[in-house]
Specification:
The chain is an alpha/beta fold. It contains 18 helices and 17 strands. It has an eight-stranded mixed β-sheet with strand order 9-16-15-14-10-11-12-17, with helices on both faces. The chain has a seven-stranded mixed β-sheet with strand order 1-8-6-5-2-3-4, with helices on both faces. The longest helix is centred in the N-terminal third of the chain and has 26 residues.
């Protein structure tokens, strides 16, 4: 018991949490004590809060996010302004911005070369596909690739064995970035394969999110990987002091193997994603494998982050390897990534474009449905225009408070003619959008404020690939296993629930 207590109180999460509480308490006590002696300090705090509200209103950010913060600040004007300055600002430090520019410049040279080479191929996309492709290209220079085979995995149960086989066959390098890595049956197999490859001279690099892996990736595991020659770094390390970047997590899931194969999707590295451990019923998640030219963009995404986190020089030419015999032409693929201070809201902009250009059907799966006005309006307009809009959310929530907020948004969408389904076998974690059976998105981005505005996310837009038919068939299976929520079901609630939903909608951008 004593050892367990020592381990608990020495854990960096508890140390950071206690440190943050102490710092907050010191500020509150200091301001309160000073104000008892000098009344003008209260006035300064009030003026600060008003100034911060005016600053928030003047900024180019989502109106819902502005409203939530302004109301919160005015509810507690004595400390509201200071609270925003500590944890609410979306600010990228100068050092990080500099390294981001360096990384972007290095990878952009290659991407510009690719863009120049394949520009003529983009003209072959259908008109609605082109608008989304050009939006992403002009906003962040992510190319549209042909010569890329795509393979869809409807479950983590199918994805992990396939990726493991590819890793075991790696000859040059393996790049991996995940929000959560947790010890268990899935990780044990993967860890053994990575160590075996590293011992045979394969360059293995891993990025993990320090918050996502705080309780799941022990220090001993990290040390063991490093002892076998694997380089592993945390993204946005948790510190024991207030840091406005604490909210900005890397939610991306990327694997790149030998510059010719890449994976992305909703699956983290943990047993529940492969249904080897039951947490919230059956875990439904999806992933995509890419073989061919589009892997270049996933490689650039990873190396840009590695450049920020590591001081070691990166020789980009060693990681961009042209396929000797590219796969047969099969539609088009456009990988993309976004995050605070870098391609802000790019994936949300792509979502709105896809929604707005839908003509017949729009199918969406998301574990969280907490929408800003722009996305909600686009969805409602699509339904009013006669598009068959269907959205699947979990029946079994993993975060009850967030789920209540999701239901409050679902109520408004149902009243607009959108069909909302709950995945009755359990928890659906897949992040997909399928438009007219011709265009699609698969990746890591949930339909909520945190993914749109606070997290670093990634994914791929698909135009006319065969895998879209597989995604559509799987979606039909999801619908068959789900329950359609009626207006009566979601509206038949108590007055207290209505009040709670209103409050949660108000503060949803801060969740």
């Amino acid at each position: 018991m004593f050892r367990k207590l020592i381990k608990l109180f020495s854990h960096k999460a508890l140390i950071a949490f206690i440190s943050l509480l102490l710092q907050a308490a010191i500020v509150v006590v200091a301001v309160s004590f000073a104000a008892t002696r000098w009344q003008w300090i209260w006035l300064v705090q009030y003026v600060l809060s008003i100034a911060v509200c005016l600053y928030i209103v003047s900024r180019d950010m989502n109106p819902s996010y502005k409203l939530s913060w302004c109301i919160l600040i005015l509810l507690v004007p004595v400390f509201g302004g200071s609270m925003y300055l500590f944890i609410g600002r979306q600010h990228t430090p100068r050092r990080v911005r500099k390294r981001l520019r360096e990384a972007s410049d290095a990878s952009q040279i290659l991407l510009n070369t690719i863009n120049a080479h394949i520009a003529s191929e983009r003209g072959e996309l259908n008109p609605t596909g082109t608008t989304c492709a050009e939006l992403v290209l002009n906003s962040a220079s992510y190319p549209v690739y042909s010569n890329t085979a795509t393979e869809y995995f409807p479950l983590g149960d199918d994805f992990f064995p396939r990726m493991l086989d590819d890793i075991r066959a790696a000859r040059k390098f393996i790049l991996m970035e995940y929000f959560i890595i947790e010890r268990g049956a899935v990780w044990n197999e993967l860890e053994a394969a990575l160590i075996e490859r590293a011992e045979h001279g394969v360059d293995v690099k891993i990025i993990y999110d320090d918050v996502g892996c705080m309780f799941t990736l022990p220090k001993k595991t990290i040390e063991n990987l490093r002892a076998h020659g694997i380089r592993i770094l945390p993204f946005n390390r948790v510190t024991a002091s207030f840091d406005v970047r604490l909210n900005n997590r890397s939610h991306r899931k990327i694997t790149v193997i030998d510059g010719s194969i890449a994976y992305t999707g909703g699956n983290n590295i943990a047993d529940e994603y492969a249904n080897k451990k039951v947490r919230f019923g059956h875990w439904k998640d999806t992933h995509m494998r890419f073989d061919g030219d589009a892997v270049c963009s996933f490689t650039a995404m990873f190396l840009a982050f590695w450049h920020i986190l590591s001081d070691e020089p990166i020789y980009y030419e060693n990681y961009f390897i042209q396929n000797v015999s590219p796969p047969p032409r099969n539609g088009y693929v456009q990988p993309l990534s976004c995050g605070p201070g870098r391609n802000d809201n790019l994936i949300e902009s792509a979502f709105i474009n896809l929604i707005s250009t839908a003509e017949k059907s729009l199918y969406i799966t998301t574990p969280y449905l907490i929408l800003d006005n722009e996305t909600a309006t686009a969805l409602r307009n699509a339904a009013k225009a006669g598009v068959d809009v269907r959205i699947v959310i979990p029946a079994v929530p993993d975060k009850k408070l967030v789920y209540k907020s999701t239901k409050s948004f679902a109520e408004q969408l149902i009243k607009s003619g959108i069909k909302i389904y709950t995945y009755t076998p359990g928890f659906i974690h897949a992040k997909m959008m399928i438009v007219d059976g011709k265009r699609a998105f698969i990746g890591t981005c949930n339909m909520d404020y945190r993914s749109f505005y606070l997290h670093y996310e990634c994914g791929a837009l698909l135009y006319g690939t065969d895998s879209i038919a597989d995604m559509t068939a799987d979606f039909d299976g999801i619908i068959a296993a789900s329950h359609r929520v009626t207006d009566e079901e979601i509206s038949d609630v108590t007055l207290l629930t209505v009040l709670a939903r209103s409050i949660m909608r108000l503060f949803a951008p801060l969740m």
